[in-house]
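Task 17 of the worksheet. Students: predict the tertiary structure of the chain below and write it out as structure tokens. Keep your answer in the requested format; marks are given for formatting as well as content.
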Amino acid sequence: VISDSRVDVLQDINAWFEAYNNSGTKLGELLDVEITMEKLEKVFNTVMYKSESDYINMVVIDITEQKETQNKLSKAIKDAKLSLANNEKSRMDVVQTVYNEYMNYITAVYTRYATHKTLNYTELSETVKELCIFIKENRRYVLRITPSQDTITKNYLISHSMRSTVIAIVIALQLRFSLSKIVDLGVCCILHEIGQIRLPPQLYMTDRRLSPSERQKLATHAVLGFNIVKENNFPTQIQLGILEHHERENRSGYPRRLEGSQIDIFAKIIGVACSFEAITAPRHFRQARSSYAA
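Model answer:
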């Protein structure tokens, strides 16, 4: 049973990793699937871009260009407020524009980690705070945005992370979380799949049924993501939210088969948001289901 103390929780997790790594079990062996940094750029290219030229264009993003992305995002929000005040009919178009700018921002965050192995919690929090406020003011419009099949095919990780984050923030608003807690939840949800960029993309981009060994490899993305944010000194609850977002109330989840009372609240919300997003977004092997059907 995990201790209530966050420090003890991290100690429990570290002890768990060490025990499994030394045990020779399947999960311990699966933790070795993490590829070397020399191969990471090639994998990231395959995951996020259709061509080498698309990838090269994104690799040149540096700190200055990422700042420009943030500036564009701030400008889009300001323009949106002006437009929304003057023309209600254009509201959906304006919200879509801001949504697209946040997609660009998340792309820059993932790209920077893939090429420089760095994540900035403070900078992410500031941007997510603006997103939380924007969603609160425009939630019924933002929830109507559904990505196209082309968008998902070209940029699955970004599209899924963005839409799941919107849904998670709306859930937190409904639960009346404090703004600071919603911001941390948003940061956690944006990064909850970042471990997947260290796995072969065919594990989650294929339309065929995965073999048992492939499913086991894919399941390690929660641990890989946890390690990434831990190495970059993110708060404990964000680390746990990423580690546990595939745990389930009845102990059927992974990686530790926790029961409901042991699962972090961020992980529970992200788990619900991810499931809803997956059902209501189109995939190349099936059409999206309606929100009502979901």
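Marker's comment: The CA atoms of residues 171 and 177 lie 9 Å apart. The mean pLDDT is 79.
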